[in-house]
Amino acid sequence: MSLLVAQDLGKRFSSGGRTVEALRDVSLSLAAGETLGLAGASGSGKSTLARILTRLVPADGGSVRFAGEDWLALSGADLRRRRARMQMVFQDVSGAFNPRATVADALDDPLRIHAVVPKGERPREIEALLDRVGVPAAYAGRAVRDLSGGQRQRVAIARAIATRPALIVLDEAVSALDVSVRERILHLLATLQEERGIAYLFVSHDLAVLRALSHRIAVMEAGRIVECGPAGRVIADPQSPAARALIRAVPRLLPQESKESPDGR
Amino acid sequence: MKLVGDMLRRPEGATGLAILVLLALLALLAPVLFPGDPLKIAGRALTAPFTDPAFPLGTDRLGRDVLAGIVHGARTSLFVGLAAALAALAIGLSVGLAASFAGGIADEALMRVVDAFQIVPSFLLALAFVSVIGASVPVVVLAIALGAWADPARLTRAEVLSVRGRDYVAAARIAGMHPVEIVLREILPNVLPPVLALSAIIVATAILTEAALSFLGLGDPNVVTWGSMIAEGRNVLRSSPFLSIFPGLALVATVVGVYLLSEGLTNALAGEASVERKKSRRAGKYPPLPCRAEGGAGAGDNPPAEQGEEGMLCRTKNLSVTYRGQETPALTNLALAIHAGERLAIIGESGSGKSTLARALAGLLPEGAEVEGTVRWAAGAAPLPGRDLGFVLQDPSASLNPVLTIGEQVAEGARRHLGLSWPKARARALDMLERVRLPEPEKLLAAYPHQLSGGQRQRVAIAAALAARPGLVIADEPTSALDMVVQAEIVALLDELVRAAGMTLVFITHDIALAAGFADRVAIFKDGALVETGPAAAVLAAPRETYTKMLVASHRDLASPPLVGEIGA
Amino acid sequence: MTRALRLTARRAISSIPVLLIVVVMTFLLLETAAGDAVDAYLLSIGGGDAAIAGALRQAYGLDQSMAARLWLYLSALARLDLGWSVAFDRPVLGLIIERLPNTLLLMGSATALAFAFGSTLGILAGARPGSLRDRLLSTLSLVVYAIPGFWLGLVLAIVFAVQLRWLPTSGIETIASGRTGLSRAADIAAHLVLPVGTLALIYTALFLRVMRAGMAGIWRLDFVLFARAKGLSRARIVLRHVARNALLPLITMLGLQAAAMLGGSVVIESIFAIPGFGRLAQEAVSGRDAALLCGIIVVSAVLVILVNLLVDIVYAALDPRVGTAERGA
């Protein structure tokens, strides 16, 4: 009983007369309440995949079943309604909010559009959401751009959970944050998953961060998934050169006995 | 609106608005100040200006009051300018929006029409239009608008396409917002400001075009305009040049007012954008004046290192840096020593002052930064950037000049500091490119930055920074913009080069583990102050300060315990 | 250079539909004008009756549908037949070709001067944004750019030709002076000082502003900080790193301004009585010569396209990114 099954997804971009195959025959599945980590170097196609699954970018081929429906066939009002079930958190904390929006505006939109709660209760719901992600309720009236990066990302998470989704796509959601803030956001995401049974598709170039939340990890290279398996197994016993390179690249805090040469050339 | 307030707080915006308000008042009050038809004869012909109090600016050939004409002419100029700009804006916005949202063939076709209107000289178009249809104020307005709508159309389309690609529009789609609402609430409000700034320019162009048309006799013959007054004065240019000069001055004043207003608006917009940028990246402005970091003491006042400081390269004492316009210092009372030949990692999160320290050491602080305290260098004088000190920046795609060859950018420092000729400097550049292990270095000399990947660009930047054989390298987050595999390669390269040449390395990073990999000593920064310093292994294994402990605890590597349990896969 | 050539070829091909749109525009303008070519012709030969007019119309296909007339117009243009000028009683194309060199001389020298002065002063202003020199130059250029060309021309004429009598007020050369060779060139140069100076002054202000604004933006970029970190001389940073990049928007501006310059030639040439392209436009207006006016518009569109192709080639030579994905041209 998978929540999401993607099969043979393909995507090409053409720029300046050249065609780049961003995705080739990508298939993956995700169970309810599970985190699938999607690792890969820049240009490996992981963000394209995230944007296809969230229906921001059309796929050239392949199929996606989400919550029992043909997800890529949905359109118009049907799609907009179903979007409540799949949300997204972006990497760029400053770009993910309308420069004019206040915190309350940002959270009010999903509540209003999907009529999550009756109109009169929305302010209270916004307060509850802010409380849940650890942002003082007094911040509701502030412009999002006056908040710190960590707080903005908390508001982004609040916006994502507002519609009570089954799946949240986290596109490099903690990569731009300071380590101390990042750690707290990771904890918040883990707790939310436990409480609400939300599944995550967690995209990152940092395996150590992926490992924190992922049950399974898929490694991408040049538009393909080259390896996929339980997180512990992929990290302990990588099968593909791409995975091995990513593992080697993670800096270790204390010099390790079996330190390999980091020279990857 | 906040933008208007910002604009008025700037001198150019306020002056521009003041001029225009004054003109608008004159125009509105014209029938009261100078009742009657300004085209009617009022007195003796060709009264010289400043001679008759009844006609302060004199009269023309037919004895019409020049001042009355100018005040009444303001009505025409301002009305035509505003109306034509509004019409152009309305057409331009609609076409731009239509093109950007329709996309595909419709977009292509509309943009070709925009092209057509941009390559036809708009003055010729207006001229032809008015002469074919006949001169009247509405026709003149339409004729000017016809030549002016293409610019706002193009700008609107470009802005919509850019805004539409932003994450917040994606976020609105993810939220399930209706497309119409996305356009009205997310896109349009963010597209309009730059288009409005452009429309001020359109008003100015429209006023000038109207004047030129009436100067050529193609204005509405039933109203008085500045252009027709100038043309009228031209007939007696030799005897009474003032008849042409006064209305022209009014024209210049009006257009200056509009330009000032537009400049205020543009600057206010840019200011808004730069505030945003400052918040997200703390990117400062780097104006041209290099300023040294010795604080009050000049280089001569800095004696060489004292006894007991053998091997000391540099020592800061009570060093504080405050950027212009900021209240809290970016760096406070810093006391830090750098030893010759060591690899020192400066570790801190955003706002810790680590980059400020790097810039202060390199003498690269932005203009207007206030520096207190001292930096003492063992050599006596502060190191000369490039010659004694190599600096590597964070983002290699921004730190290389896009239009110069790699060879020139690596060679230029060597040429200046090693006194080499260009051919010798190029040979040195070739050697450096080999040392940073770039493939096909001969070819690279003639290549441009955009032809390289991010990791390769950073290798080029390192080669350029080290080309003049500096003894000290300061690397300011040199790997933060790269992905992790490349990051590991770049760190290994820097480490190797520094070791081989016995250089001192100051490595600025937010990543405590990255520093741990190769630094001899670490210095932890927080909120502009030094928290803790000591040998890397000791500090990281047994941190003394709470903040360091927290940083170490927050670090994640592959051995860190996951936050989620296993799920039976 | 193949990169630039390929790009230019692509641009040239893509301007064909644009030119077609311009032609349709002028056709519509012609259609709107009162009377057609036959009326104009009859007027020029001193009138004729309705029967002659009808016969002529049939002969020229002017009694056909609008689409057919458009086709006639297009095929005439394809044969480089721009129609018949009533006001001058000769073919439009010949008239334009006769007048064009004067305008090109005027525009070319004004642009060259303005480019040289504008970029130099722009570098002086942009070398230290915010300095006193920058503020003075910026303010001065704003005021100069606000001056309408025809009025500036008049004022300069009052001062230098009327009051000081240093320069001739009008014409392109002294009529029937019998001068040849260098003496004639000097005579033409003297006649061009005021019109070229007027245009050059205004465009210098514009180019100064574009150059200065470009430099002010580039000072903030990382590669300038990096250039400073390399310890380069100030002159090298200003010229090779900052100004070199700020030149690119200035080149773009040259292309964008081509149309505005041609439009501006109308007033300048009419003030200084220079028998050029712009004055021809004004004469077409006063002679109610719609065919001539439309011919002028079509030719000016072609000129602007050619100037832009030239600008594209220069730009491609200056910016290595052109033709790659980094800058969609």
From TrEMBL, chain A:
Residues 4-247 form the ABC transporter domain. The keyword Membrane does not apply. The keyword Transport applies. Keywords: ATP-binding, Nucleotide-binding, Transport. GO terms for molecular function: ATP binding; ATP hydrolysis activity. It comes from the Bacteria. GO terms for biological process: transmembrane transport. Belongs to the ABC transporter superfamily. This is Peptide/nickel transport system ATP-binding protein. It comes from Shinella granuli.
From TrEMBL, chain B:
It is a peripheral membrane protein; Multi-pass membrane protein. Residues 74-262 form the ABC transmembrane type-1 domain. GO terms for biological process: transmembrane transport. Keywords: ATP-binding, Cell inner membrane, Cell membrane, Membrane, Nucleotide-binding, Translocase, Transmembrane, Transmembrane helix, Transport. GO terms for cellular component: plasma membrane. Residues 314-552 form the ABC transporter domain. One of its GO terms (molecular function) is ATP binding. It is found in: Cell inner membrane; Cell membrane. PROSITE patterns: ABC_TM1 (PS50928), ABC_TRANSPORTER_1 (PS00211), ABC_TRANSPORTER_2 (PS50893). It holds the Pfam family ABC_tran. The chain crosses the membrane at residues 78-102, 123-150, 195-219, 240-261. Residues 280-309 are annotated as: Disordered. Coiled coil: none annotated. Belongs to the ABC transporter superfamily. Belongs to the binding-protein-dependent transport system permease family. This is ABC-type dipeptide/oligopeptide/nickel transport system ATPase component. It comes from Shinella granuli. The lineage of its organism: Bacteria, Pseudomonadati, Pseudomonadota, Alphaproteobacteria, Hyphomicrobiales.
Automatic annotation (TrEMBL), chain C:
The chain crosses the membrane at residues 12-34, 100-124, 136-162, 188-210, 246-278, 290-311. Pfam families: BPD_transp_1. One of its GO terms (biological process) is transmembrane transport. Its main location: membrane. Residues 100-315 form the ABC transmembrane type-1 domain. The keyword Transmembrane applies. It comes from the Bacteria. SUPFAM superfamilies: MetI-like. This is Peptide/nickel transport system permease protein. The lineage of its organism: Bacteria, Pseudomonadati, Pseudomonadota, Alphaproteobacteria, Hyphomicrobiales.
